[in-house]
Amino acid sequence: MTELDATPDISGVRNSLTQVKDTAGTRAFRIVNGVILTVVSVVTLYPFLNIIAKAFSAEGEIAAGRVNVVPRGFNLTTFDAVMSDPTFWNDYKNTVVYTVVGTIISMILTTTFAYAISRPGLRGRSGFIGIAVFTMFFSGGLIPNYILVTQWLHMKNTIWAIVLPGALSVFNLLVMKSFFENFPSELEEAAALDGMSIYGIFLRIVLPLSKPVIATMVLFYAVAQWNSWFGAFIYLDDKNLFPVMMYLRNLIAAASGAQEVTGSQTDAVQIGANIQSVTMLLTVLPIMCVYPFIQKYFVSGIMLGSVKG
Q1: Residue 157, SS3 per DSSP
Q2: Residue 212 and residue 275 in one domain
Q3: How far apart are CA 79 and CA 309, in angstroms?
Q4: Of 7, 26, 163, 208, which sees the most CB atoms within 10 A?
Q5: Domain that holds residue 114
């Protein structure tokens, strides 16, 4: 017998260890789990499908409650009214600019601040953390913020009034701080021994290895900035600077007012019937296009950067 022949065959043992015994309890769990996941999926998808159906349905069908997940009385009146207006595209461009600029500023502030307060050797570290946490529970209020932005900082009717007041989320800061605290210190020590500065370590070692949590924070900030309209409502008077959310808000108000006044089957009433569905669809569409590209980082980013006690 050769040495090769004498080698024991352990493939069967390995296969038996990797296989889960299919018991009645296991089968029952799979069935219940499948049913629950199916119900959750239907409950989650139905409202979105209903919004899409209403966006392409006629006003009469919507008013009669006959629209579920399939459009009835297919029409594009509202889409034509919104997308043929050059103001819509100008406001859409403004929203893209606000989202890109605001997300970049937010990520710069969040990553640098989080990395600094995650270093145990930072002097006054607990004080900086306390100041950040304090702002989660206490704020100056709307009027002091308005005075600060408009009179002291003179940012009214500028892009900075939109992207700076809410540039730093303390919750996102704490999540990223927790992630950096669990970052392998051996990598930073090795880079320091090679003569790399703290800025080089942060830019060339830490950030490239933090893609999951960075992608998650980018998604959070971008969605918040894209959906924001209240800042523009109080800080902007120039209609050329309005984001698309302000355009859609004003359109809803105008269409609803026209419907209450006229009560007739005009184009304004038609728009008033399904304008909310069109608004929601146009709002969520860009995020839906971006999400698949960063979805693979989303779950791992949340888990790796979760706040630990």
Answers
A1: coil
A2: yes
A3: 49
A4: 163
A5: 77-304
pLDDT score, position 308: 47
The closest alpha carbon to 287, from 204, 185, 218, belongs to 218
Q: Look up the CATH number of the domain holding residue 94.
A: 1.10.3720.10
Q: Which residue in 62, 51, 95 sits closest to 249, CA to CA?
A: 95
User: pLDDT tens-digit profile of 157-178?
Assistant: 999 999 999 899 999 999 899 8
Q: For residues 148 and 143, what is the distance between their CA atoms, to the nearest angstrom?
A: 9
Q: How many domains is the chain partitioned into structurally?
A: 2
* Cα–Cα distance, 21 to 30 (Å, whole number): 13
- 220 burial (CB, 10 Å; 0-12 / 13-18 / 19+) is buried
- Tokens 């710069």 label which residue? 108
Residue 274: which of 71, 13, 36, 115 has the closest Cα? Answer: 71
Q: Is the pLDDT of residue 30 over 50?
A: yes
231 touches 95 (CB < 8 A): no
Residue 202, domain member (yes or no): yes
Provide the percentage of residues in the chain whose pLDDT is more than 90.
32
**Collapsed DSSP state (helix, strand, coil) of residue 252:** helix
Full-prediction pTM beyond 0.90? no
CA distance 242 to 99: 13
CB atoms < 10 A from the CB of 161, how many?
21
**pLDDT score of 298:** 63
- Are 35 and 175 in a shared domain? no
b/e sequence 86-124, b meaning 16+ C-beta within 10 Å: eebebbbebbeebbebbbebbbebbbebbbebbeeeeee
Backbone φ and ψ for 195, nearest 5 degrees, come out as: 90, 10
How does pLDDT run across 216-266, given as a tens digit for each residue? 899 889 989 998 889 999 999 999 999 988 887 887 777 666 555 555 444
| 114-149 pLDDT tens trace | 999 998 888 888 999 999 999 888 888 889 999 999
